[in-house]
Write a structure and sequence with these properties.
mainly alpha; two-stranded antiparallel ribbon; globular
Length: 155
């Protein structure tokens, strides 16, 4: 149900917020450019008899190995969504098997088509893009690109 999913999202967001300091210190220590960092986290969630979610564990870089068609359908769609969020525009796969699998898991069988990068930007995002495009050679300016996120940064 929508209420259960909202509760799961809430506990996942709170877990990410709680780990922000640790994640940021690892990014600073191991990554040359913070703007190019992507990580997949696998959350193991337990629902009690009242459907209250609890985080059992969080896996960094969880296995994407698939043993079954259902596994491939779920993980394939998830990977497409992740790559689309990173602005690699992958086409939507609209097959009945994948849609039926998602509906069995309580997700609507809706598919999102994402606009091509740059064609949907709000005016504040276009201004931010222009500023950083014109000042990309200044190291101090590049270091501030994530300081003020716009709604388009978070889509």
């Amino acid at each position: 149900s929508e209420a259960v999913w909202a509760d799961i999202i809430d506990v996942v967001v709170k877990t990410i917020i709680a780990s922000e300091k640790t994640v940021n210190s690892h990014v600073k220590a191991n990554c040359a450019r913070r703007s190019c960092v992507h990580e997949l986290f696998g959350f193991d969630i337990f629902l009690d008899q009242c459907l209250k979610p609890y985080v059992l564990e969080v896996n960094i870089s969880p296995s994407l190995h698939s043993n079954s068609q259902l596994d491939r359908n779920i993980k394939g769609g998830m990977m497409r969504d992740i790559l689309n969020m990173a602005c690699f525009q992958l086409p939507c796969r609209k097959d009945a098997v994948c849609g039926a699998a998602m509906e069995k898991l309580g997700h609507p069988g809706e598919w999102k088509e994402y606009p091509a990068p740059g064609n949907h930007l709000q005016s504040d995002e276009r201004a931010k893009h222009a500023y950083y495009a014109n000042n990309h050679s200044v190291k101090e300016v590049r270091a501030t690109i994530l300081d003020k996120l716009t709604p388009d940064d978070l889509r």
